[in-house]
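Raw record, unedited: VWFD domain-containing protein
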Amino acid sequence: MERIMELGLLILLGLPPVVGTGHWCEHTVEERVEWVLSPRLQLEVSCSEVYQYNTQGWRLDVDRLRTKHGGDEGIALYYKQQGQKASCFLYKPPEMQSEVVNKTVRTCCEGWGGPHCSQGVGVRGQCYSTWNCEEFPGVHNSSLMPMEQCCSTLWGLSWRNASDQTCLTCTYTLLPDSQSSPLVRSGLLGTARVSQGSATCMSWGGVHYRTFDRKHFHFQGSCMYLLASSTDGTWAVYISTVCDQRGDCSKALRMMLGLDLVSIHHRNLTLNALPVPNGEPLFQNGVSVHWLGDFVFVESGVGVRMKFDMVNTIYVTVTSEHLGTTRGLCGLFNNNPDDDFTTMAGAVSPYAASFGNSWKVPDQHIEECSDAAELGHSCDATGEPTLRRQAESVCNQLLENPFTHCHREVDPVIYIDTCQYLYCSLPPKERQDAVCDTLASYTRECAQRHIILMWRTATLCGRVCPRGQVFSDCVSSCPPSCTSPQPPGPAAAMGQCREECVGGCECPLGLYLHQGLCLKREDCPCFHRRRSYQPGNSIQMRCNTWAGQWECTGEKCSGQCTLMGALQVTTLDKKRYGLPGGNCPFIVVEDFVDRKLTVGVRCGECTAGHWGGVAEMGCLKEMSVTAQHTTVTITDTGTVTLNGQRETLPVVTGDLVLRKVSSSFIFIQTFGAQLLWYLDGSYALISLQPGFANKVRGLCGTLTWSQHDDFTTPEGDVENNVLSFAEKFSIEPCTLPGGAPPDPCSTYTQRRTYAETVCAIMHSPVFQVCHDVVDREPYFRLCLSEVCGCDPQRACHCTVLTAYARHCAQEGVTVHWRNQTFCPVQCTGGQVYQECGLACGGSCSDLRHGWNCNDFTSETGQGMCVPGCQCPSGLVQDQQGQCVPTSLCPCMEGDKAYPAGAVVQNSCNTCVCEQGVFNCSQEHCEEVQQCPHSLVYSPRSCLLTCSSLDPLGHQHVSRVSQSSCREPLSGCVCPQGTVLLDDRCVLPDECPCHHNGQLYYTNDTITKDCNTCVCKERHWHCTQTICAGVCVATGDPHYVTFDGRCYSFLGDCQYVLARENSGLFSVTAENVPCGSTGVTCTKSVTLSLGNTVIHLLRGKAVTVNGMPVILPKSYSGSGLTLERVGIFVALSSRLGITLLWDGGMRVYVRLAPHLRGQVGGLCGNFDGDTENDFTTRQGIVESTPDLFGNSWKVSPSCPDVENQDLRDPCALNPHRMTWARKRCAVLTQELFSRCHTEVSFQQYYDWCVFDACG
């Protein structure tokens, strides 16, 4: 019986059975056999003879021409240069002959596999209309079918094998070769797409639809239907009708947006099966959800946006790139309504019912549904004249005031017909809502033409709002609220706030929205770091107090400079840069005015563990501090010298105090400066009081609260290139490694995963309390770099985490992040580990010198935070490191670092430790040597060079003095009165100035921004003109403020880039999702000047007050000029603002100097102070880009950006990292090398990699 069934199955499949142990089948296939009659021929002839050869079957060999001449531009240039002499390559294709032959092949019968066709194979499986075998409407998933059958349907996107549950994605090759139907999955119809604007399909009243091409129709189907989708299956929107127990019915929507699934059912919205609370905005996986009035908006990076009132009114908008590639009830978007009734089979139906029924989608959740019938107009079908008269009476209100104001723009006839159709077709209890929906749809259409109608009354579709709010059919998307009290721009810009024109409740004029209540301005709370403060509350931010509506005391605070790792520097004005330190000593802080303070550091090879090329970048080896006449030096091993002599701690002089304040840190206090030196890693912190402002320079910058002049050199010019800048602060002649600094995570790719794992603690709940207080992104990137370039045995991440945790603690947030296995610290002598220990009063020595904490308080009112082991409260540390009560402190003179009699060799002298001090012999150490060139040997003198004529820390000197050197030695020097330049001795007046690695001589000039610098007496003398400010928004998206602060902000909303404080003008940019990793791109830019609004939308013409204009265009009244400059659209105004946009992802905003300090927005406040660029719309300074950026969104209904550091696309897509780095590496290579000295490429390279991964 089993054999008979098997034979029957084979016959059913049309395959002849084959006798044997396996299940083999033979079948005949057609095979095309080809052979060459004559080979391909090539020829080179004069281009003027090509036409004659064409008639003989020869063709132009464009590929060879492109290869020889370098592309199409090269060919054009060649033709232009050669003229009649130009020669062209021709070829004649090979002549082929083919023949179709039948061939019998023997393969496994269907259902069987394996080497002997004896293994049963489950060739049937479930078919899905999603890309990842997830349940969703489309193919009826309960039926089993072969993969070929599934993927040959228009619905099938993936297939799951029933036997092993493997999910396979359908590929394009499995589709039928259909040329007649436009609904092929490729989506390319073979016609060139014309650049058009977006198109919107809509439905209201439950049965009325308008297609993308604006064709209206009625359709009363009760099943699930495809409302709209792309022909390639990238996205789809399904619509159905659901009813509750009371019989109230509404529409349900299901959306597939790439791999994301959105469902709206009975007013509940889910994204990928997770519920989204009503009213709460969300941005996830490139899908944005936000709420405005009665509507929810869902938008995706695939170019589709939907808005739905959760009942019956739906809008689906697609961008111009979907032209010719849509299908469903919304029709084929091609600006031709005649083919909008294209059915699923590809034919154009004359009837709405047959068209709609063809787009029915099988769905197991809808058990019984029936096709719609073509019944004509419902008012005619009822046969009740009274009902029609009632419908006409109600619906003809569209012919009366105030609707008549819009008749010229929007014809009311189709809306009146729809209104009557709905009135006659629906049960009595649903008629009023359907009529109101139609009237509201008409007014929304009018609003799109900038005609706002106030039409509701208490008796006509009246709406009542709660808590003092009022109803508006065009609710503002940017209402005044307590979080955004200022309007986003001039009055004209406010009109854009109502362009969406959806109904909803809002506060009356003059009141501000806060948590659903309408408040007076003076009753609004203030906000800072996601917390609210009631009016009258005050907070302390560094040295300032903020109170009231965030009014600040305005004091200038101290600056902090940090040096970390392979010499990563954060300047006093918060500029960050990396420096391959090599084995070089540098001046990091130099008081060149009062000469009170000089701080130097020496880099060198890390003590152990750093590998290869990374070791060359160096670690901090020692720091020297000179205060007046006292110099102390600390090494990475904790050794301290005072004016060249070894000392034990503490060191106390009239100029400075140096103490070990915890197990991990040495602390130095001197005139208005505090320094911390970390003993367990490469980390130093320098804090300067505001009294040093405009008096210092060095690797730590200038303390002018502006990053623009941080690279000021001893010659007075401002360098752009890090190496050129650093070399001018090198204490000794030293060559820094050139070229691009190596990225350890690219060099040692196998370590990146480990680095991301250990550094990820910054993003974890452990540091959650600090996320809004200290920007963690720079620390995270530094942590990755350090760990990738570090031996696993060295816990390099611990140093970076120590610095981050100390920064948090200094801001008042203590994080306990260490444990027994992660960066453990063993304390001895009864000490305990503290994240924010005191810098004073912790030892017997402190008490002996009379030090107390008031001597070391910071500007925040608390002491400087010092992590490490310290004695518990009430105990102090004695000379042996034991915690004892203060009553047991010994009385001692000095502190012995060496036992008595210890011998130390210093050059040719011997030093013996006697009675606590080193007694050294005073031998004269000479070394005779031959001198090169014109140099002469001189005992105890200095080799003066052009750069040492004005030694760091000293004023400009006009004559050569051998006594100007600090430590005379024996060696080769230039003759008296000359100095060394390169390898020759010259007069001092022949010494040049330096800039960007080049030499400039007397009266040579350079240009820096809008200023000119002249070289005179080896120094640059620059004009002090205030320059225009330029802000850049580029990529996904990254910003450079007017004052030079760089940051990234992944907001999905419309934001204020720049707004003049009195509302004179504003620039806003709309960012939308692009890609699926959570990055966003600029979609449009708007410039508002008084009553003029200029709108730049990607892919559309420039509009002025809603009307398209042809460039160039100028307006004498407002002084506005619009023109196209290269690939940019340029807008400029006599108000002093210029805007450039490339139509894609680059926006430049330029402000004239007279607007300095008069603007706010994502571009900063243009006051020259980089540190306060993150000033929010409320006027307070935030620490992180997301808190700052959120405050400048135009519409409060947009989702806030949170945890954007977790959305690094390279971390989400590690497989793209190598490709991204390879593509972006061109910035670091020779092609751009000429620009490296002028513009640092590192920030642009990092952004390039970020964008390429995204």
